[in-house]
Design a protein that fits this description.
Length: 115
Protein backbone atom coordinates (compact mmCIF):
# COMPACT_ATOMS: atom_id res chain seq x y z
CA UNK A 1 0.00 0.00 0.00
CA UNK A 2 1.31 3.48 -0.88
CA UNK A 3 0.76 5.83 2.06
CA UNK A 4 1.15 9.61 2.13
CA UNK A 5 1.88 11.10 5.57
CA UNK A 6 1.25 14.86 5.86
CA UNK A 7 2.24 16.44 9.17
CA UNK A 8 4.22 19.56 9.98
CA UNK A 9 5.94 17.90 12.96
CA UNK A 10 9.13 16.15 11.83
CA UNK A 11 9.12 13.70 14.76
CA UNK A 12 5.56 12.60 13.97
CA UNK A 13 6.44 12.09 10.30
CA UNK A 14 9.51 10.05 11.27
CA UNK A 15 7.54 7.90 13.74
CA UNK A 16 4.74 7.21 11.26
CA UNK A 17 7.11 6.50 8.39
CA UNK A 18 9.16 4.07 10.47
CA UNK A 19 6.11 2.22 11.83
CA UNK A 20 4.41 1.99 8.44
CA UNK A 21 7.53 0.81 6.60
CA UNK A 22 7.91 -1.97 9.18
CA UNK A 23 4.43 -3.03 8.14
CA UNK A 24 5.61 -3.36 4.55
CA UNK A 25 4.07 -0.17 3.20
CA UNK A 26 5.59 2.34 0.79
CA UNK A 27 5.60 5.70 2.59
CA UNK A 28 5.92 9.26 1.30
CA UNK A 29 6.12 12.12 3.81
CA UNK A 30 5.38 15.82 3.37
CA UNK A 31 5.31 18.71 5.82
CA UNK A 32 2.66 20.98 4.35
CA UNK A 33 -0.70 21.14 2.59
CA UNK A 34 0.69 22.26 -0.79
CA UNK A 35 3.05 19.28 -1.01
CA UNK A 36 0.25 16.93 0.09
CA UNK A 37 -1.99 18.21 -2.71
CA UNK A 38 0.83 17.86 -5.24
CA UNK A 39 1.56 14.25 -4.23
CA UNK A 40 -2.14 13.34 -4.28
CA UNK A 41 -2.45 14.80 -7.78
CA UNK A 42 0.71 13.22 -9.19
CA UNK A 43 0.80 9.79 -7.55
CA UNK A 44 -1.55 6.89 -6.95
CA UNK A 45 -1.96 7.16 -3.16
CA UNK A 46 -3.89 4.41 -1.36
CA UNK A 47 -3.99 6.05 2.07
CA UNK A 48 -3.56 9.62 3.30
CA UNK A 49 -2.62 10.13 6.95
CA UNK A 50 -2.91 13.84 7.70
CA UNK A 51 -2.83 16.35 10.54
CA UNK A 52 -5.55 18.99 10.45
CA UNK A 53 -3.50 21.94 11.70
CA UNK A 54 -0.47 22.89 9.67
CA UNK A 55 1.17 26.30 9.32
CA UNK A 56 0.68 26.65 5.56
CA UNK A 57 -2.96 25.59 5.39
CA UNK A 58 -5.72 23.38 6.65
CA UNK A 59 -5.43 19.63 6.43
CA UNK A 60 -9.22 19.57 6.55
CA UNK A 61 -9.36 21.16 3.08
CA UNK A 62 -7.19 18.35 1.74
CA UNK A 63 -9.43 15.77 3.42
CA UNK A 64 -12.52 17.34 1.83
CA UNK A 65 -10.87 17.23 -1.62
CA UNK A 66 -10.09 13.54 -1.19
CA UNK A 67 -13.61 12.76 0.06
CA UNK A 68 -15.13 14.55 -2.94
CA UNK A 69 -12.81 13.00 -5.52
CA UNK A 70 -13.70 9.86 -7.45
CA UNK A 71 -10.45 8.15 -6.44
CA UNK A 72 -9.92 5.28 -4.05
CA UNK A 73 -7.71 7.09 -1.52
CA UNK A 74 -8.67 6.34 2.09
CA UNK A 75 -8.03 8.90 4.84
CA UNK A 76 -6.88 8.80 8.46
CA UNK A 77 -6.89 12.11 10.32
CA UNK A 78 -4.36 12.36 13.16
CA UNK A 79 -4.93 15.47 15.24
CA UNK A 80 -5.26 16.72 18.79
CA UNK A 81 -7.84 19.25 17.62
CA UNK A 82 -10.87 17.22 16.58
CA UNK A 83 -14.22 18.19 18.09
CA UNK A 84 -16.89 15.55 18.60
CA UNK A 85 -18.96 17.19 15.86
CA UNK A 86 -16.09 17.16 13.36
CA UNK A 87 -15.21 13.59 14.28
CA UNK A 88 -18.79 12.50 13.58
CA UNK A 89 -18.76 14.33 10.23
CA UNK A 90 -15.45 12.79 9.21
CA UNK A 91 -16.51 9.28 10.23
CA UNK A 92 -19.77 9.63 8.30
CA UNK A 93 -17.61 10.22 5.21
CA UNK A 94 -15.49 7.12 5.80
CA UNK A 95 -12.56 8.95 7.41
CA UNK A 96 -10.81 7.29 10.34
CA UNK A 97 -9.85 9.61 13.21
CA UNK A 98 -6.90 9.15 15.58
CA UNK A 99 -6.59 11.69 18.35
CA UNK A 100 -3.03 12.72 19.22
CA UNK A 101 -1.34 11.38 21.15
CA UNK A 102 -2.19 7.90 19.92
CA UNK A 103 -0.58 4.52 20.44
CA UNK A 104 1.13 2.47 17.76
CA UNK A 105 -1.48 -0.29 17.99
CA UNK A 106 -4.22 2.29 17.30
CA UNK A 107 -2.40 3.35 14.14
CA UNK A 108 -1.89 -0.24 13.01
CA UNK A 109 -5.58 -0.99 13.59
CA UNK A 110 -6.70 2.10 11.66
CA UNK A 111 -4.43 1.24 8.72
CA UNK A 112 -5.74 -2.35 8.66
CA UNK A 113 -9.30 -1.01 8.62
CA UNK A 114 -8.43 0.98 5.50
CA UNK A 115 -7.22 -2.09 3.58
Amino acid sequence: MKILVADDEQLVRWFLERALRKGGHEVITVSNVADACEKLASQDIDLLIIDLRMPEGSGLEVVKKVINSPGKTKVIVCSAFVTAELEDELKSNGVHVLKKPFKLDELVSAVKNCL
